[in-house]
Amino acid sequence: MQDIPTKAQILQWIAENPGLSAKRDIAKAFGIKGAARIDLKRILKELEADGSVTKKARTYRDPDTLPPVTLLTALPPDDQGDIFLRPMEWQGAAEDAPRILFIPKKGDPALGAGDRVLARLSKVDLDDYQYEARLIRRLGSNPIKILGIFRKSAEGGRIIPIDKGADKDWLVSRDDSLEARDGELVEAEQHGPKRMGLPRARIVQRLGDPMGPKAVSLIAIHQHGIPDRFPDPVIQEAEAANPAPMDAREDLRDLPLVTIDPSDARDHDDAVFAEADHDAHNPGGHIVWVAIADVAHYVRPGSALDREARKRGNSTYFPDRVVPMLPDILSGDLCSLHEGVDRPCLAVRLKLDAEGTKISHRFVRGMMRSAASLTYEEVQQAQDGHPTPRTAALMDRVITPLYAAYQAATKARHLRQPLDLDLPERKIVLSDEGKVLSVAFRERFDAHRLIEEFMILANVAAAEELTRLKRPLLFRVHEEPSPEKLDALREVAEASGFTLAKGQVLKTAHLNRLLAQAQGTEFDELMNITTLRSMTQAYYHPQNFGHFGLSLRSYAHFTSPIRRYADLIVHRALITGHDWGRDGLSPQDIEALDETAKLISDAERRSMTAERDTNDRYLAAYLSDRVGSEFTGRISGVQRFGLFVKLDETGADGLIPIRDVGREFFHYDDGTQTLMGADTGLTLGIGQKVTVRLAEAIPVTGGLTLELISLDGAPLPRSPRTGKKGRFSPRKPGAAAARDTKLKRKVIRKRR
């Protein structure tokens, strides 16, 4: 009788011979023939059932290892320019997938993110990666990614995309379904060439219940590719960090610096203190200290922490979670300026005159100890005459001097005339289970404005200091609106009865005068929205092009290095410029400034889009129980295909499709952003008040569909082409005349 190998022997052989793992190869290796093959088949099935091996295309392999030749997808290059590859057929959790480094040979084509390759793997025993890959051939590039709901069928199923603009489903075969359950949220990619009918996809990751607690932000994280898991080397570096020593730092621990943040803040990266300036040459002046967490001490150039922070660019904030730029041990502990503990900082001493103009500044690398971690609400209550026992003890030494310095700074701000938009921010309040409890306006206090003004002053000082030191840095740039956008704004203003000066160099003061004209009128919100949309988007750049919105010649982000990589670059530049240590701006940092600027500017836009999409989905879920209800709102956007309306109650944006606007053809004017009815002359434009009915709310996409009931308090005019039975001929205006002309030509041709 033949000796049947044990399970352990089979597993060892599969691990040592990954290229010969078919059942016949295993049988041949152990000399198994005839009826004994039945016993081998039984053992292999048992190994497959308990997860010890996986079977694909009649071969068996260790589920925790990869075959020597496999399909891989290229990831974006890391900060060192190395290309890592992701296994396309990994069966385990995505975070457990091995890291594979691409080793190019001379003559190999350059790989870009999304390229699919067939490669030969060699296992290595290294901390950063587990395999090296050598190219056999490139198979294709950049497959389409799909995030959607899986609907199971006998043949496999289909994916219904969650994107609002998606117009088709995707078919999935049973073999490509990854055993996803019906109704599960999945990530997939295009699979196979395009053919007639619905396109085909292969599921690459199962993400669970789309309506589960707090799943909404997870959808945005996956949809926009926001890194939400720190690699092991990053966590190891963070956990190995120790509190910073005093060394040559300036001792600021006797200054009663305080942090002022939202009540739910976990990280505190800025602290402030103010006092009257006793310099006889500066009567009525103020001294303001702004101390910022010294993140550069912990996140060194070229480290795993640094590479990950640069890749993330910034922290991303959702109603139910934060995806931080740095691991929590740093962002929430060692770097955070907690009350009563010593923390390293970079600080600037600002000297203001009685009118709030900055006379001078001085930067130091110091050690501070926060006197209190305060909230905006309690600081404002204290200033308004309702202090708590905690804030009462801080009134004379801390809070009153802060507001005195702020009042002076507002005078300088008024002279500078930064853009003064009035766009209230709404806050989504969630239960512990992730259900929307309410949508309310965020309260704005002078305490908020105080911190904002001091942060702006510190950012200006950082840009000026590094310019003086002739050190490279990343400026925060905001360019003035384009002539085309200004013309569009001017047309809307004139149509509303206001004026915007033409033929002169545009300044924010001109826009503020326009907003002041509209303040308190029915066009108030219209002019604020239209002015905002005329602005360009701010970005980071090594060259200084000024900041139009803040009306500043020179501006850099310095005050939030825990959550923004740009601020960390500015900190390193200050450290190098003042020779404060070896953790300053490296030659590699300087060489990569252009690339870094683009990378983090793109990351900022990615986060903004993900945050907006998440809010849309939460709002749609909140309103889904009120389909059929009527709401008031204002038209916030006009396109050829319909109207966007911002609802007054929640701030949610919904779409009125053009087919439902009115029973007539509408002309679209791109210049004035209006739609005009061909029969009634009804004109629809941004800012008009509307009453709408909620027709549809789809939480998984965040889409709201609305029906227009009234415009500016009046019912919609009736089209003269609506028939007796309410039927409507959807022909375009002039269609009858065109038909008559065509008929006349036909008669003329016949006569000839």
Binned strand content: 25-35%
Structural class of the helix and strand makeup?
alpha+beta
How much helicity do the residues have? Answer: 25-40%
| Number of strand segments | 34
Largest sheet: 6 strands, antiparallel
Q: How would the global form be characterised?
A: globular
Arrangement of strands in the largest sheet: 28-27-26-32-33-34
Distance between the termini: 102 Å
- Mean pLDDT score, rounded? 86
Supply Rg. Answer: 32 Å
Stretches with pLDDT under 50, minimum 5 residues: 723-752
Main attributes of the structure:
single chain, 752 residues, alpha+beta, 6-stranded antiparallel β-sheet, 5-stranded mixed barrel, 34 strands, 30% helix, disordered C terminus
Model description:
This protein is an alpha+beta fold. Helix content is 30%, strand content 26%. It has 18 helices and 34 strands. The strands form ten sheets. The protein has a six-stranded antiparallel beta sheet. Strands 3-4-5-7-6 form a five-stranded mixed barrel. Helix 4 (215-223) runs antiparallel to helix 17 (593-623) and helix 11 (446-469) packs across helix 15. It starts with 6 loop residues before the first helix and ends with a helix. 36% of the residues are buried. Mean pLDDT is 86; it is low at 723-752.
